[in-house]
Amino acid sequence: MPHPAPFLATFRSVLSYHLYRRGGDQSLRSFTCSSFEMGSNSPPGPGCREWYPVRQLLGYPGHEFILIILHQPIRDPCLFGDLWSKAETKIAADGGANRIYDLSQRVAREKGTAGTPEPFTDLDTIIGDLDSLTDQTRQYFSHSRIIREREQESTDFAKAVNLARKESPGRDIICMGGLGGRVDQGLSQLHHLYLFQKSPTYADGRMYLVSGDSLSFILKGGVRHRIRVREPALDVADTFRRVSRDPFAKHVGIIPVGEPAVISTKGFEWDVRDWDTAFGYRMSTSNHVLPDSEVVEVQADKDVLFTIALKQVSND
């Protein structure tokens, strides 16, 4: 098992408090989408949100997505290839195009693809202030649309998301980045994930941050969320090298963003009910999905970040 990425290790050691592992009254005895009573601290919100992250990664009908590539190393080429093959639109945030170019050259060398079409050339758009874009990358993607936005009040990440939302309103977005580099860059990615998921009904489309280690997304407060983490009956094409019916490992974090939250859960090794969580107090990190759980459930009175580990497999 590879060592955790530096950002995640720092994030857990500095900012988190160990999951409060009490049994008894902390365990949920009855938790369904139609009937679940929160305690007095957190009134139930209307309805229930269903999540199908496996189908999202597969680009299943009804789960089409725009892929945004950030200026971070692509540490899982197979996962990237799966997402690239299913993305409806592909947008690189400035230096993200360099990362695609670097990967294309690596694939060409390793696979000996001389005389065959170069990989990953069908990038739709490169957008940003373009201060990171190299000449080689610009030439490689000469058929792609290149948009220079010199405005410095927003990041290249934000410019890419704004473009996607403008041209494809309501479409889901998967951002290919990584939390394994500098801590400030990792926090910036989480900040943007939260910033661009403001609608309580996800009217603007759902947004995901994926790396070689994990998938993360925002669960809006006041609503019950059912997250289908395994789909054993799903039909998955043989062309997928990384995404499967069961792509997730057991580790999960449910982290408050913006303000303290009160959470209740079902389907985890350490379920909680009406459990206060906040930075500087305690946080639910390194919880485990139960081996027989196909669906896990979370309710919080305020927005929380849900992050689940991806199984580590060979990229050969």
From TrEMBL:
Q: Which GO terms describe its molecular function?
A: ATP binding; kinase activity; thiamine binding; thiamine diphosphokinase activity
Does the keyword Cell wall biogenesis/degradation belong to this entry? no
Segments forming domain Thiamin pyrophosphokinase thiamin-binding: 225-304
Coiled-coil features, chain-numbered ranges: none
| SUPFAM superfamilies tied to this protein | Thiamin pyrophosphokinase, catalytic domain (SSF63999), Thiamin pyrophosphokinase, substrate-binding domain (SSF63862)
**Record's Gene3D superfamilies?**
Thiamin pyrophosphokinase, catalytic domain (3.40.50.10240)
Q: Which Pfam families match?
A: TPK_B1_binding (PF04265), TPK_catalytic (PF04263)
Keywords, A to Z, come to:
ATP-binding, Kinase, Nucleotide-binding, Transferase
GO annotations under biological process?
Answer: thiamine diphosphate biosynthetic process; thiamine metabolic process
Q: Which CDD domains match?
A: TPK
Matches recorded under SMART domains: TPK_B1_binding (SM00983)
Q: Which InterPro entries is this protein grouped with?
A: Thi_PPkinase, Thiamin_PyroPKinase_B1-bd, TPK_B1-bd_sf, TPK_catalytic, TPK_catalytic_sf
Q: What is this protein called?
A: Thiamin pyrophosphokinase thiamin-binding domain-containing protein
What is the source species?
Xylaria bambusicola
